[in-house]
């Protein structure tokens, strides 16, 4: 008898995010500190974890950086309700 279960969402450490994006570790840290992206949790060792949504968020930030400052981007993200 098969039971239903959900596969847990993948969580990415900062090094994995860096490997899959053009951003540096410091940039990811800065964007987190500024509130442009959010971690979804922490490892037992105190490392930040990000979910899959961070990649879409970083892509949006990268597109906005072509014409906007980080301060403007933060305002845009907050005003659009896209602050998570």
Automatic annotation (TrEMBL):
Q: Does the keyword Repressor apply?
A: yes
Q: Where is the HTH merR-type domain?
A: 11-79
Q: Which Gene3D superfamilies match?
A: 1.10.1660.10
List the Pfam families: MerR_1
Q: Name one GO molecular function term.
A: DNA-binding transcription factor activity
Cite the entry's keywords alphabetically.
DNA-binding, Repressor, Transcription, Transcription regulation
Q: Where is the signal peptide?
A: none
Q: InterPro entries recorded for this chain?
A: DNA-bd_dom_put_sf, MerR-type_HTH_dom, MerR_fam
User: Would you tell me the protein name for this molecule?
Assistant: Mercuric resistance operon regulatory protein
Provide the taxonomic classification: Bacteria, Pseudomonadati, Planctomycetota, Phycisphaerae, Sedimentisphaerales
């Amino acid at each position: 008898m098969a039971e239903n279960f959900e596969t847990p969402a993948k969580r990415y450490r900062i090094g994995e995010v860096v490997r899959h994006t053009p951003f540096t570790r410091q940039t990811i840290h800065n964007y987190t500190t500024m509130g442009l992206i959010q971690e979804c949790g922490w490892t037992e060792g105190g490392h930040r974890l990000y979910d899959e949504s961070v990649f879409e968020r970083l892509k949006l930030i990268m597109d906005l950086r072509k014409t906007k400052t980080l301060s403007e981007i933060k305002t845009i993200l907050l005003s659009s309700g896209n602050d998570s």
